[in-house]
Amino acid sequence: MATTSDIRNGLCIRYNHDIFKIVEFLHVKPGKGPAFVRTKLKSVTTGKVIENTFSAGHKIDDVRVETHKFQYLYNDGEFYHFMNQEDYTQIRLTEAALDMPGLLKEGDVVTVLINTEDNEPLSVEMPPHVVMEVTQTEPGVKGNTATNATKPATVETGHEVNVPLFINEGDKIKIETEKGTYKERIKD
């Protein structure tokens, strides 16, 4: 058993007969009244995100997890298939277990959280950023850069990202996986 002082991003807990991963948290100490922790929880089975507030010192049932490196192989429409890099065993996960499935390229190495009690995979943690090639976007209009204007661009996996006007087809860009947003253009 853990308490609210043990809450951190990525911690898996049992709550309402399901296993949730903590996505965001904030310790709040109001001037009047007791302290509490405001959290955003993502269900590892359904992918649904809920918000919850725990009072300070509240006992939470944490789930012991192990992390393993897996390589993304392919998506068959229903499941995403991964291979363990140590023993070459394969697992398949639903889209709900993935934070940003649109940013996964075949061959990418990700971290999979596995429940130590029953060896079931819980969720996939992407690297902090990925580099993708822009496959389709409108050409930028010269002189239209006075504001922070953006335009939609499709990357090689089919995912759409808003990018600055100077990005063209064929450019490689760095995308932040946590939010799915453009970070910077990569020079070759």
Automatic annotation (TrEMBL):
InterPro entries xrefs: Elong-fact-P_C, NA-bd_OB-fold, Rib_uL2_dom2, Transl_elong_fac_P/YeiP, Transl_elong_KOW-like, Transl_elong_P/YeiP_cen, Transl_elong_P/YeiP_CS, Transl_elongation_fac_P
Cellular component, GO annotation: cytosol
**Parts of the chain that traverse the membrane:** none
Which residues belong to any copy of the Translation elongation factor P/YeiP central domain?
67-122
Q: Which UniProt keywords apply?
A: Cytoplasm, Elongation factor, Protein biosynthesis
Q: Where in the cell is it found?
A: Cytoplasm
One biological process GO term for this chain? Answer: peptide biosynthetic process
One Pfam family from the record: EFP_N
- The chain positions of domain Elongation factor P C-terminal read 130-185
CDD domains attached here? S1_EF-P_repeat_1, S1_EF-P_repeat_2
Record-linked SMART domains = EFP, Elong-fact-P_C
Primary residence? cytoplasm
The pathway this protein participates in, as annotated, is:
Protein biosynthesis; polypeptide chain elongation
GO-annotated molecular function: translation elongation factor activity
Spell out the family assignment given in the record's similarity comment: Belongs to the elongation factor P family.
**Alphabetical list of NCBIfam families matching this protein:** efp (TIGR00038), PRK00529.1 (NF001810)
The task this protein performs is described as: Involved in peptide bond synthesis. Stimulates efficient translation and peptide-bond synthesis on native or reconstituted 70S ribosomes in vitro. Probably functions indirectly by altering the affinity of the ribosome for aminoacyl-tRNA, thus increasing their reactivity as acceptors for peptidyl transferase.
Annotated protein name in UniProt: Elongation factor P
Identify the gene encoding this protein.
efp
